[in-house]
Specification:
44% of the residues lie in helices and 15% in strands. The chain is α/β, with parallel strands linked by helices.
Length: 220
């Protein structure tokens, strides 16, 4: 449960414009779709995917670090790491199992004999969209456990796109369709409160000192 008194205390430190911006952005945030990237060799691509998640309203990014284990490139992310939740996993199995347990269908973004074009994709089901490595694409484990396959229609000679470009195209398409649908895709009230608290903390300098003062004065 969120400590409402603590949330109000922190938000009183923020400007009215900042608080209004939080509420406006949260109106367009969703967990109906989530994104997962697998062992991305070039870390700036993961950072760029995170930025696309933030821009188009996807709240969670799942990063599998089974082989490379790198940190987010903050310059490329352009501050998106403050507003998007990053879940890291040390194995494909752990990531897929976790997302399935949350009710997501696993969708592999790769050309496949049973694939679905982007505009034909059924957006009604909560979906975890997986993007693979620049070198090898998605692993066999993800392909075997996928509930569906999604691809971007292409009409040129080139048969693939950079992962960050592919993710941006797919995320923009699906979130735009979602917002124009009758699907209940919004964050819950509890999720909104959680994000307000997290974003307030991320916005306040010397938050640790302020937290220590607040709890020393208010917790008995």
């Amino acid at each position: 449960m969120i400590d409402i008194d603590y949330l109000n205390f922190l938000e009183n430190i923020l400007t009215d414009n900042r608080k209004e911006k939080f509420l406006k952005v949260l109106e367009n945030r969703t967990n109906h779709f989530t994104i997962a990237v697998e062992d991305i060799f070039q870390m700036h691509n993961t950072s760029a995917v995170m930025r696309s998640c933030e821009v188009f309203g996807i709240q969670e990014l799942n990063v599998i670090e089974q082989r490379y284990g790198k940190s987010i490139d903050k310059e490329i992310a352009m501050g998106a790491q403050k507003w998007v939740d990053i879940n890291t996993f040390d194995s494909i199995t752990n990531c897929v199992d976790t997302l399935k347990s949350k009710g997501y269908q696993i969708i592999a973004t790769t050309p496949h004999e049973n694939d679905c074009l982007m505009d034909d994709f059924d957006i009604s089901k909560p979906s975890a969209l997986f993007f693979g490595t620049e070198r090898d694409g998605l692993s066999e484990e993800i392909l075997q456990r996928a509930d569906g396959f999604l691809k971007i229609p292409m009409v040129g000679f080139t048969e693939s796109l950079n992962i960050s470009v592919s993710a941006a195209i797919i995320i923009q398409n699906l979130t735009n369709r979602l917002r124009n649908s009758n699907i209940d895709w919004h964050l819950s009230e509890e999720e909104i409160l959680e994000k307000r608290l997290a974003w307030a903390k991320n916005s306040i300098k010397e938050i640790k000192r302020i937290e220590e003062r607040y709890f020393s004065e208010n917790v008995k």
